[in-house]
Design goal:
By secondary structure, this protein is α/β, with parallel strands linked by helices. It has 5 helices and 15 strands. It has a 9-stranded mixed beta sheet with strand order 1-15-13-7-9-11-12-6-14. The protein has a two-stranded antiparallel ribbon with strand order 2-5. The longest helix has 13 residues. The chain is globular, with a radius of gyration of 19 Å. The model has no long low-confidence stretch (mean pLDDT 96).
Length: 230
């Protein structure tokens, strides 16, 4: 068994979309502060986290993009949805700021020698993290799905798909449309992944990415991991 960590670190003031809360991490207590009970001294350090439920590598809950009554929050989604069969499509050749078409997905599926199956998690490797992380373009310059290509994935009956970028579609109307495809077709997506180049050409594997049990949460950070059989 080989485990590949697909998650980004969560750190102080890390990049995030400007319409989401800033990530603030600070020391709440340090080992310099001592506690004494019945003559026994103990020191402990505690970190304070102040961040939104869409921080770092995270998954969107339906209630994030669906304002209709009954849309589920992150704590209401079955855990089975976050432990699935998975495949990775290589789209690393896509130019920055480009739209990913149905033809691009079909070609990537064929090149991978796999077939996307119902209930799969589909990871889309765009080599975006390496190309853009640490630049201003990290929030704006990623390739993205379109309404049509997201619908193509939805017609495969997938559970979710995942990208390295901060959004699944290009900024603006296209991103809104991709979110609404997820709403209308009953699947969701992961944002902020990394290390997917290690999955290219590996065939099928297992994806693990359990969310925090945030009551009413519109999403959650996850520890995304690919499980490959040796």
């Amino acid at each position: 068994m080989t485990l590949i960590d697909l998650s980004r670190e969560i750190y102080h003031k890390m990049p995030r979309l400007p319409n989401h809360p800033m990530i603030i991490i600070s020391a709440f207590t340090t080992h310099e502060e001592k506690r004494v009970a019945d003559g026994y001294s103990f020191s402990s350090a505690v970190t304070s986290l102040n961040m939104g439920d869409h921080s770092g590598t995270h998954v969107d809950a339906p209630v994030h993009f669906d304002d209709r009554p009954g849309a589920k929050s992150i704590d209401e989604i079955p855990l089975e949805n976050y432990f699935t069969e998975a495949v990775c499509l290589d789209l690393s050749h896509m130019p920055l700021k480009s739209d990913i078409s149905i033809a691009d997905l079909v070609a990537a599926e064929k090149a991978a020698g796999i077939e996307i199956r119902p209930k799969d998690t589909v990871l889309l490797h765009m080599d975006f993290y390496r190309r853009a992380f640490g630049t201003e373009g990290y929030i704006t310059d990623f390739p993205g799905l379109t309404k049509e290509s997201a619908t193509w994935l939805g017609n495969k009956g997938i559970t979710m798909f995942g990208v390295e970028a901060a959004s699944p579609g290009r900024p603006g109307r296209s991103n809104f449309e991709v979110h609404h495809v997820c709403r209308d077709m009953g699947f969701t997506h992961i944002e902020g992944l990394m290390n997917m180049e290690q999955l290219v050409g590996k065939g099928r594997f297992r994806f693990i990415g359990f969310p925090l049990k945030i009551k009413g949460g519109t999403g959650s950070p996850i520890r995304a991991v690919a499980w490959l059989d040796d």
